Amino acid sequence: MAEPEFFESSPWIAGGVVRQPALAGAVTADVVIVGGGFTGLSTALCLREAGVDVAIVERDHCGFGASGRNAGHLTPTIGKDFPTLVKYVGKDRAVEYARFADRAVHYTEAMITRLGVDCEYRPTGNIITGLHPRHRKPLADSAELAASLGVGVAFLDEAEVRRRNLPSHVRFGVIEQSGGHLHPGKYVLALRQAALDAGVRIFEDSAVTAIEDTASPIVVRTAAGHVTAEKLVVATNAYTPATLGQMKSKVFPVRVTLFRTAPLTPAQWDRIGWQGREALYTAHEAMENYRPQADGRISGGSKWVQYGFGSTLTTGHLPKVFAQWRKLFALRFPELPDVGIESFWGGWIGLTLDFLPLHGSNARGTVFHGLGYNGHGIAQATYAGPMLADQVLGRSNAEVELFQRRLFPLPPEPLRWLVIKGITATLDRVDNRVDADLARGTV
Ligand SMILES: Cc1cc2nc3c(=O)[nH]c(=O)nc-3n(C[C@H](O)[C@H](O)[C@H](O)COP(=O)(O)OP(=O)(O)OC[C@H]3O[C@@H](n4cnc5c(N)ncnc54)[C@H](O)[C@@H]3O)c2cc1C
Description:
Elements: E1 5-6, E2 25-34, H1 38-49, E3 54-57, E4 73-74, H2 82-89, H3 91-115, E5 126-130, H4 133-148, E6 153-156, H5 158-164, E7 172-176, E8 180-181, H6 184-197, E9 201-203, E10 210-212, E11 218-221, E12 225-234, H7 240-244, E13 252-261, H8 266-272, E14 279-282, E15 288-292, E16 298-306, H9 319-332, E17 341-351, E18 358-361, E19 367-371, H10 377-392, H11 398-402, H12 415-440
Parallel strand pairs: 1-17, 2-3, 2-12, 3-9, 5-14, 12-19
Antiparallel strand pairs: 4-8, 5-7, 6-7, 10-11, 11-12, 13-16, 13-17, 14-15, 15-16, 18-19
Helix pairs in contact: 1-6, 1-10, 2-3, 3-10
The structure holds flavin-adenine dinucleotide.
């Protein structure tokens, strides 16, 4: 099989976009948004609806970040997992968060309908799959607890998994009923177009190098120009510590690798089944995700993540990780010995220590942020739009209040690096035991 191709950004926007002009000279706006992913674009759309004059300043092109690179699972997942969330915040709060995450999915579905663009959305739900007997109790307990609290999940036993004809590595699972999967590139570019159509001024190829926000008005500077505005929205998620030097103690980037196969032939699809084309992610501590694409490919990834010392944006060309994935894909999909991985790419997700997003503002109420979606930002970053817009407009928003909490700050380096390495190594050890059994075929 040919060597897989590597995309610096992602294959979802492989053709690139016709760039909007870079920021040059002095520009004024009511609100300036730094970053043009789901958060920035969705916020801009909401603000335009309220008649606000908005400028987005984007380092590359809108959708260049995680929003144009992600795995495409539209999920109502929040927190590390539901039982852990209950343990940390209590049942009532956990249910509130779960309902929030569900509303975020429905808001995103409504946005897709409103955009009127085919982004290949399939509302299949997402199945958390059990591969090993050790996955059974945590999954069954989690489903029982969530269902007892009215959260929309159901346990899928072996018989139901067979009825659905899921890939053979799946033994049982838990379905999150709302959501499904989509083409991230088509979705984010539709948001970008909608923002342009609504009159949002977008400046691309315009990296923000300095922010002056201690007095009014705020000034956001790039190498070639500046925007002066009354209010600022920081929508740079995982990039925030590295490119703006902000939020270093609250959010950190980890690099996640994704892949896609060549298109499967009808005969290969017949072999694997999976007629419901559900989005899947495994019950590992560091999950693997897999989904069928509309063009007949399978895409997937996650699992092995990298943290760069000092929250730097480390390289994504990782031949060792790519080799691990080729081996693992063959193990997970033994029905497809003749299907190889065609390409790799990846991006940085913004993690927080409690796996919950961050929403807040400065004391003067002029600078707002929405970030740290912990890999669940298709829904939660889209839904950050109305949350941020309400704050900018001085309206109260109950969703924002949900996320006001005391946060333990991340320690400074080198301790941070050690803590993050320690956590990922511990999770990997648990998963390695499971995977060793699966590879030996002893379970
Ligand atoms: C590999 C991967 C897989 C994922 N899979 C899923 C999934 O299946 N489901 C899910 O729900 N979520 C997933 N996520 C997470 C989801 O994609 C993100 O949470 C979401 O896209 C965040 O959107 P955002 O707009 O906040 O940030 P981004 O999309 O990252 O946008 C931030 C933007 O800011 C720009 N920027 C940064 N610095 C500057 C600067 N100094 N000046 C100007 N602009 C700047 C960047 O270029 C970027 O375009 C995944 C993420 C990754 C990386």
